[in-house]
Write a structure and sequence with these properties.
- It is a single chain.
- The chain is of the alpha+beta class.
- The chain has 6 helices and 17 strands.
- Strands 7, 8, 9, 10, 13, 14, 15, 16 and 17 form a 9-stranded mixed β-sheet that branches.
- Strand 11 (about 155) and strand 12 form a beta hairpin.
Length: about 240
């Protein structure tokens, strides 16, 4: 048996200190009973409910950050037997990617078997920040940067405001390097945004997802998330 606040933190819902606050404020139930006493111990067979969310205390959750290489599918399996992001991670757990990156897009992607976190991060209302670097054809001019910042109509719907800046323009190759920070996850969104203003995306990389970046991770490499990083991800989807 372990202390309730430690179990909540270990399951990645929040930090131990925040878990203690939730317990004291009456927002935690064990087997349907509200628990407000710190130090209460629970068994793996107990049902723990935090802020109306039931935590799976019987399952070993795993959380990974992968630097996805090109020509890898963002899926648990592929009907054409192409390599998937799951194939790159050594685990016996049934993990799956949180969202998708295109076949030719590289960069940060989370994989986990925590369905609660994955579903909430992928929900349109999550508003999770994503940072991309795009290499595109031609010179992206100031007025086009402004259009991208204010929102572009794609698939009949305007994109949300974004942070956009031109990092570099190479006259020899006639290519621009553009940094974008968006809070949506629409299908092929970055490529469609640039296409709508007359530029094709040649290369696209997601450098950051929420609080997670690719420091010390080469393409194809991955690492486990820390408890602190998991807690931060949960805090991002608890804003409402």
């Amino acid at each position: 048996m372990e202390r309730l606040q430690k179990v909540i933190a270990n399951l990645g819902y929040t930090s131990r200190r925040k878990a203690e606050e939730l317990i004291v404020s009456g927002k935690v139930k064990v087997n349907g009973e509200v628990i407000t006493e710190l130090g209460t111990k629970v068994k793996t067979s107990d049902t723990i409910e935090v802020e109306d969310t039931i935590l799976d205390n019987n399952r070993n959750y795993e959380y990974y950050l992968l630097n996805k290489p090109r020509e890898v599918i963002s899926s648990a399996k592929d009907e054409h037997n192409r390599k998937t992001v799951v194939d790159l991670i050594a685990t016996k757990e049934r993990i799956y990617p949180v969202g998708r990156l295109d076949y030719d897009t590289t960069g940060a992607i989370i994989l986990t078997n925590d369905g609660v976190l994955a579903n909430k991060l992928m929900h349109p209302s999550s508003n999770v920040e994503k940072k991309y670097i795009a290499k595109v054809t031609g010179l992206v001019r100031g007025y086009e940067i402004k259009e991208l910042r204010n929102g572009i109509i794609i698939d009949g719907k305007k994109t949300a405001k974004a942070e956009v800046r031109l990092k570099k323009y190479d006259k020899k190759t006639d290519k621009s390097l553009v940094e974008l920070i968006i809070h949506e996850g629409r299908n092929h969104q970055i490529k469609k945004m640039f296409s709508s203003i007359g530029h094709d995306v040649v290369k696209l990389k997601r450098e950051k997802y929420a609080n997670l970046d690719l420091t010390n991770l080469k393409p194809g490499e991955y690492r486990k998330l820390t408890n602190k990083e998991i807690a931060i991800l949960y805090s991002l989807i608890k804003k409402d």
